[in-house]
Batch of 2 targets.
Target 1
Amino acid sequence: MSLNPQRTVAELKELRALTADENGAQRVAWTDTWLRAREWFAAKVKELPVEQHRDAAGNHWVTLAGASEKALLIGGHLDSVPNGGWLDGALDLLAGLEVLRRIASGFGGRPPVTVRLVDWADEEGARFGRSVLGSSAFAGTHSIAADRGRTDRDGVKLEDALRRCGVEIDQFPEARKERKNAAAYIELHIEQGPVLERMGLPLGVVLGTKGVERHIITFHGQEAHAGSTPMNARRDALAAAAKLALEIRSIAGKHEEAVCTMGSVKTFPGIATAVVGRCEATLDQRDLDAGVLAQMYREAQEASRRFAAEENCTVEWTRLWNIEPVPFHKDLLELCEQAVRETSGAAHRLPSGPLHDAAEVARAGIPSVMMFVQSLKGISHNKIEDTREEHLEMAVVALDRLASKTMEWILTQR
Amino acid sequence: MSLNPQRTVAELKELRALTADENGAQRVAWTDTWLRAREWFAAKVKELPVEQHRDAAGNHWVTLAGASEKALLIGGHLDSVPNGGWLDGALDLLAGLEVLRRIASGFGGRPPVTVRLVDWADEEGARFGRSVLGSSAFAGTHSIAADRGRTDRDGVKLEDALRRCGVEIDQFPEARKERKNAAAYIELHIEQGPVLERMGLPLGVVLGTKGVERHIITFHGQEAHAGSTPMNARRDALAAAAKLALEIRSIAGKHEEAVCTMGSVKTFPGIATAVVGRCEATLDQRDLDAGVLAQMYREAQEASRRFAAEENCTVEWTRLWNIEPVPFHKDLLELCEQAVRETSGAAHRLPSGPLHDAAEVARAGIPSVMMFVQSLKGISHNKIEDTREEHLEMAVVALDRLASKTMEWILTQR
């Protein structure tokens, strides 16, 4: 049986019909719709000569035994955000399924290395605010104590929602067993950004996932009457924040791929007739280079203090979240570039702004790489998320090529 | 009986004990506490040889008949904002009461002109969002159709709240009768701003009330992923608003007394991980000169369009409210300056940012002027609102001088 990329597109549409409504995909992890998607997937897998099981964190493993126990892992995730798109996560897994079918039908039924397809549980963290949950259990980077008490908007506890799906959070450490013999990890994903579309390229090689520094910055000034307070007597907290909102663009602009975003500004008292006494702004900074990230963070802090002083305000920073950059494996980047170039004629290397399961796998020390396929208008996490079908098919072909190259590479490792 | 400014301070404290709690003054118009304050005031007035009545809008008139029917009006308001200060409005009325006592005890019981003290109903508009309600009925600038359906936060209708206090909104036009023979209007008020304190002056002459242009400005960009959207591919609505937040300071800065305030900024979707797709900001612009106000409004519009274009966004303006500037009467400004100078040795002329009942009276064509007394730290509409007692006493003396000068001036008018 040869690779059939059209079948992947057809299966994506089948899944969409099964799990989307007029607002988009509804495969939120630990919900009935997600479980239905997983049953649908398990039934597809049953036709193959594979072993399948769920691990202690709910990740679904499909194993095609090979001549060597060393395993190539191919990953994806069926879960989506609420009102999500048809491709985010599902493309990765269904393209991997097609690659697995091709491998299973060749090599006289026994490929040179073991190949394992994994459907990670709860990549999005959409319901409980904890992303890459299943892959963090695999990687041993999970945080059970902090996560077990998380609740969804209806007050349901994370641990109870997992239990309902047959997963005990206390058993998470057991998921690390799946790392045994893992020799490499590859993952295809839609870009979720506009870079490849702007360059006119169907496919890209992902350098790694950017590190993130995410903070709330609060400027304190003095609330005052908008009518009776002269301009030169004001301590306007919004003015300090506005200066920072503009300055972060210079801070990011010194580095090619770096981004800085002020996504939320809140003003207090926040009425038309009062000078802003307090302003809370979020700052999200990302880069693939830890040194660049640290420099941007430092520069933003310095700028905020300078602007606070200029406006006769004070400033305080509160960290919301941070994660270090995760660069992908040098050899696999080269293989990915070959696969992309052979498929589409050109290859561009770019970092991933969003976090992915591949980063957790890489943090566990397993050589990893990701491939991106173009996103139309760079839009994701939305029902209008889309990619041209010809590009989806090219992505399946390129992932298949990357799988073959990586299997060969695994055999060359000591 | 000679003027007793200490009595005014004592009466202010008496009123505070009667109508304030641990959070400040609670004399919100059309509430029981406000009615209690008005009863207390009516009882004080009863000791004087005056006629008193409520007009059709609930304004309380106290009339001391004089040799001429031409009347000097002295105004104030007992109503406060919730959790307000002890001086805003009440000082005006109680200082006026003391001046009325002094006049009533002189001139052999018959002053050369009639003197009328008025307690305006609902200057603050704190409960229904419609300020200077009573004085607008007097001035004929009321807006019954728009106001009758207003509701408070409990859903009580304005017209029902007024009826409970014996006021029928349909009768508002009758309040214009009180304008008969009105020859001049004077009003004392706390500054509610920091200007006099910064200049070290107890008292000031108010040039008029500033005109106001108040708008919501909405910038539309494109919501985008904070991690995957390159800096140069963004349409950041917050960036356009931030530029405007800074630019309005240059726009106001060209004019000595002008102010421009961005008091509220709202970001959408307003999350740390998304570039701001839509940003709503308020802009409040004020000046005493209608030409300056129009110029500032035009410049802000032009700037907003320029910044929207620079950020690849669009912009729309929605007017929230506007009012023209109301300059006070030239002759009365001169008399007020004399009174202030004779009392405190120096006089400074300044516009009022906040609106006052005096502006409504002036709009009715009655020569009007206001006097300010210093506010500590420029803070008002707050329980910490305060003024030094020696300054309060000077203000009573200066208002009395202004009353005498204005009575003489009235007699010189045709």
Target 2
Amino acid sequence: MKTIVKSVKGTRDFYPDEMAKRQWIYGHLKTVSESFGYQQYDGPCLETLELYAAKSGEELVKEQSFVFNDRGGDLITLRPELTPSLARMIAEKQNELVFPARWWSYGPFWRYERPQRGRTREFFQWNIDLIGSDSVESDAELAAVACSFMRSVGLSPEQVKLRYNDRQLMDQAFSELGIDSESKSALLRLVDRIDKLPADVWEEKVLGLGLDQRQLTALKSLLADVNLWQRSERLVKFVSLMRSMGQVEYLEYDPRTIRGLDYYTGIVFEAYDVNQEFRAILGGGHYGNLVGDVGGDPLPGVGFAMGDVVVQLVLEHFGLIPDMKTETETIFVTVFDDQTNPESLRIASDLRLAGFKVVTALGTEKLGKQLKFADRIRASKALVIGPDELAKEEVMVKDLQTHSQSSVPRAQLVSFLRNE
Amino acid sequence: MKTIVKSVKGTRDFYPDEMAKRQWIYGHLKTVSESFGYQQYDGPCLETLELYAAKSGEELVKEQSFVFNDRGGDLITLRPELTPSLARMIAEKQNELVFPARWWSYGPFWRYERPQRGRTREFFQWNIDLIGSDSVESDAELAAVACSFMRSVGLSPEQVKLRYNDRQLMDQAFSELGIDSESKSALLRLVDRIDKLPADVWEEKVLGLGLDQRQLTALKSLLADVNLWQRSERLVKFVSLMRSMGQVEYLEYDPRTIRGLDYYTGIVFEAYDVNQEFRAILGGGHYGNLVGDVGGDPLPGVGFAMGDVVVQLVLEHFGLIPDMKTETETIFVTVFDDQTNPESLRIASDLRLAGFKVVTALGTEKLGKQLKFADRIRASKALVIGPDELAKEEVMVKDLQTHSQSSVPRAQLVSFLRNE
């Protein structure tokens, strides 16, 4: 047996059944994005390394990106995230665009990470941003978009939660603990990693920042205080707006929700399955300055990103992706012989123009074989146009589920099939 | 003024207006693919160099592909075409798949070529293949898919033609001219380039293959014979099938249509604007063996590919892409004050669930300013919910085109907006 050339590690082949799942998820996020009036955009898949150096976290560029010299000698990066491209595009047309701008995108991204459950090197990501507003209304709008998506794919508030926090609230709380400004951002990063480190290691690292035992104890009770959000006027309003938008049941306050990037400056949020068996489904937040570091004028906004891998695992876990195999509504047109073939093809063309999905037999195999193929491709109906049907200007419609059949006048075929 | 980081040469930014065009074209090719019962699939964007070495033309891999070492040291290629991935995927599941398989795909591709009109380094491509049939019916089906697409985007048979030929017919005609087997494939490649070379250079190259002056003269009259197709039983049937499918007006026989790749073994076709002001819009044909050289068992098929760049130029040339700016059906929900804000948000959520695209004001700016923003985003209607409307359970609906307005009971809002 010959060896088949291998695919690249961390990439996926989307056979039709897998592609149907990807497109099912895409369809939902597209509908939700558009229902909030967001416009679709896209950046290039290739950007200069310089762009990410200006904008992305160091780890992402230096360790997790595919970077290469192109034939002209330039350092090119396969996009590991979309925000830098978004920033570049906004900066380039900052004087023409209407703000606040509501933009969304979906496409492939690449990160050179160890492939594991929920993580591939090539993945698809939904990005959605509201740019040019500092209001808490914009934060709530993006959180509502996230919740609307979860609701639309069938993920209930009993299955998934949107955890939220406000970095400014944390900053203020840190101040009250007597933590100096220099240690605050390092401490934020440690809070972000609290679930990833053993408790003793984590405490040691906190003390290593110069906190004393009393501050550590106070910090731990702070991070366990699920009512902390009530001290933030912004979060109180956020929750109230989410209530008005009918999304409050998805909310779960979590003082330990920080998000990794330095980039966020206000409200942040992440969606998780309630048992946290999976990584974050999506995450985002408020940023103070999208375009400043790529050459534009400071512009605040809020946005989130969702990869396709974790959400699909979560949806499969809860059995929420419909069985695409049963969803085909294909009509199979058989070919009786060479004389009737033109009529079969004409009927197929007419049905396509009327909006049906139609597959025709490729030649005059025995009818039984043709019908067997129709079953194998899960067609719902098969049409037979033999010499009798041709003479009477009729079509025999066979229902492949019920195995019933009806003779339908040619002129009524479209309406017959529509009413089935 | 600060400098904005540049994008990579040969890539494109898809701002919403450009993205709408890309998605308009995508929508048409998706609908047409599905109407013929094709299933969507996708391969990875990254493949090993080995895969292309086995399958693609030498020029494409050696000179026109982005190839790089990943961090693990493997030689990775940004896919310059989809067929090798398709072949790999089919070969891997050759024993499970149902044949003939009808598959289509759409996604990004990369070629390191000099950017020029109709050519970018990063582009999108539609691929569609019928795999596992050697029948002329399958060739005609793919040609009909191509013509159905052109018809669906508004390109008429007076504007574009599908030029077709049969390599086996050419092979036979070359034999009759006394051309030996060894020279045939070199001659086919020269015929493919006849429009790209000056006549004298072309003739010199033909003579360089060992043809004599008599053969050259006969070849030239062969390549001018628009009735040559009638000598091919397969092409006669192809044309007759295309007539049955209602696509014959798009056909134009051209004995010089060859397609560059060695890969094609039978009928080939290419779509062009009639004045040939642009490159080929799409091209494809019949192949004898898709998977043999990547490790599968020989399998014939037929397919074509269409890049997004040329077709968009042609569509714009003929003024066929609708003005997307006038197509927005967004409803803008104003916010009167903090008291009425919850009701505004509730109404917005209800309308989204009812299928409308709804943008809300982010806070309580002056109503005049909010309505001005609604105009700038080309919303069709604006809703006002002030204290009076709140008390009467009504909504003021302002038509932003006609500037008329109506008070609509809250309970009838959805049906009112649907009937507008």
